[in-house]
Specification:
It is a single chain. Helix 3 packs across helix 5 and helix 3 runs antiparallel to helix 7. This protein has two domains: 33 residues; 109 residues, no CATH class. By secondary structure, it is mainly alpha-helical. The termini are far apart.
Length: 179
Amino acid sequence: MPQTRPAVDQATPTTTPPAPPTALSLEERMAFVNTAMTARLDEAAVVYEVNTAHIATEPVDLDEAVTVPLTPTLQPPTPYPTPVAALLQRAHHRLLTGGWCTGALVDAEGARCLYGAIHIEARGDQSLESRGLQVLMDAIRRQFTDVDSVPSFNDSFTSGRTPMQMLDQAANLADTRGL
């Protein structure tokens, strides 16, 4: 005799159907997009590294690569109240607007070295010029102990970035000293 199986009532489900999905909020959608984009960017970075691993390169210091003067319309900052600090500040501004050079007080385009900028901005006052050069040497020797003179320091660089930074630091130093 064949075995009979109990009948299953197909009208009543044995499990409850899943609830319909609710709409995601904007923040939730943004979080999902952010996660997906981060994964894609990470994958692209790995692909880039793999594709360029065979290329030998040397890092470039972009600060040293830019050697052109800033626009001549650059306005000078508020001058320091002390004469030596104001002189060094004017010399710094002159180098920013007129250009920096090496190997000469003034080159053919009118750019000046550190000494040339201080000399022209002193306007004939040799005492002021001398004190400005002395403060500049003090500022230079705080970072570069083997420097003999301002011109030798100036001429040891291929761009004016570091010499002009030292001139700016010297102006701050002179102001701090009340010179």
